[in-house]
Amino acid sequence: MTEDIDPVTDILIPGSVAGLLSTAALAICGRLHGKRASAPISAVSHWLWPQEANQTARPEWRHLLAGLAIHQSMSIGWAACNALAVAAARTSPRLRGGAAQSHGQRVALAAATTLAAAAGDYIVVPKRFTPGFEYHLPAAHIAAVYLAFGAGLVVPFLSKRR
């Protein structure tokens, strides 16, 4: 199954696009909620500096850079999970199908991966390892960020098919 996965086209590119789109959504939602655009992006830096978690409203460069690096790394990690699911769907005789079904499967698997990421981020992990978006954004904006992430997992595949 893993031999069907191209690390660049199946993991690195979708993970990077998902990370970039969700980072843009974080910045936009931060501004819409009356915060600095960098505040929700920097929030995840509380992993490294828990005693400074409240300072991410006016982040220093180290908070912003750490937030960006952690967010992008986690996006690529979740893209790897998505690539494994896509490879499993490709090799499953029950799930194989034509291009239309493949598009639908890709979207469904990206949605499932996004839901798993959100559940992992806010239900499974201890509070110390949440993304920290909740410090700066309401739930509706956090949902928009995850929606952008899920779209990022699918966009490279759909644009490659066109």
From TrEMBL:
It comes from the Bacteria. Keywords: Membrane, Transmembrane, Transmembrane helix. The chain crosses the membrane at residues 64-86, 107-125, 137-158. This is Uncharacterized protein. It comes from Caballeronia zhejiangensis.
